[in-house]
């Protein structure tokens, strides 16, 4: 049961301190006073109206928020759902089987970001009668609060609709409108989402029997972080299309001449279509984290630990050279496992069984940033006296190697600066204003990162030397 005090508590903790990822869960309950709105930085945020005359809801509102006080952790949710039939790993969460592979039937791989499994699994659940509808992100629906948005969550019920939701949208989306529709429209659903969004769905299901009954499967995406709308705007602007002219964007255009991680970005306006290799555009260094939500720096769920299946890119030497893209897949639900194995036996999927260590290796940088360095970022917030969400790890002022601390501080600086500098650039109608603010900090970040690499290499060499001294028979 939530009253004005609980609404205010969510507002004063998660939202006021910048930890709202804009998932929309708190705006789903019928009587909820929250609504979703886009802020000036191009991020969805939950908004509590100022009038303070609120109806009660039967939901404990802080417990539906992935960052809310008292909400169940990914470990608790995963344990309840998967413990009986899965093994557990601290990096990946619960798992049944891990694969690397792609879809061979239809145009799933061609039209997907990676191996096409994201769209395929939704379509397969639909085609085999496990669900009646899927909830995915499409470009033909707009956002729920702003029709100018380029992408939004919607309900799809045919292959064509499911497939038009293919590709990764590094763009804000929110679930409140579509989940309200699920509550009012009987049927069986599967939903795809980023780890924190799937956690929100699970938290809602813990309190809402209707959503628990109707949403039968949750598919997750491996997640580095989420971007504001300004990320898309900044790429388009560099390619000669001003933000207000941007009509569509494809963040993952495959390049047949290059490895899978050397993809391009394409943008269109009413009179222009441009395609540029993504690594030639400023702001696309994911480690630097331009336009990242603050919440993402305080999230340690990379492998969508509460989802029945999680899909990502197989960023592994054995697969990255294939320009068509290869998925990394971790399963947690017996029905999904069966659906995948059947399709594999019918030759519709090409899959290698991989170890959980390989799955972890495929997301090495993301896991180090999110599962290790999060303790140091928590410590810095604590030291300022700020409220922080309860995480599975404790704040820590030690981060090793020690010089990694500076890199973390520069990443935070870049995140904050990117949002502010782009708003200034928009006001001045001058992309250079954004670049001029970002470049000095980015250069320092790169300089520090490369000297950090050199130092790591030296450290590695020292360890090898020591090892050579103590292990007889090892040749230099
Ligand atoms: C913000 C973001 C960050 C990511 N970070 C990583 C990462 O660090 N490492 C990694 O390996 N993979 C990451 N991914 C996942 C990766 O980009 C691919 O989406 C994934 O490999 C699936 O590719 P596919 O070809 O199988 O899927 P496709 O067939 O292309 O289908 C993609 C599916 O995801 C849905 N979708 C797209 N964007 C969103 C969104 N924003 N929210 C919810 N659903 C969406 C689509 O509706 C579609 O159903 C990220 C994806 C997103 C959206
Ligand atoms: S539930 Fe989602 S939208 Fe609401 S405050 Fe939490 S993160 Fe923000
Ligand atoms: S990094 Fe975490 S909080 Fe950010 S979008 Fe991904 S799952 Fe959500």
UniProtKB/TrEMBL annotation:
It comes from the Bacteria. Residues 98-179 form the Coenzyme F420 hydrogenase/dehydrogenase beta subunit N-terminal domain. Transmembrane segments: none annotated. Residues 188-354 form the Coenzyme F420 hydrogenase/dehydrogenase beta subunit C-terminal domain. Pfam families: FrhB_FdhB_C (PF04432), FrhB_FdhB_N (PF04422). This is Coenzyme F420 hydrogenase. It comes from Marinobacter zhanjiangensis.
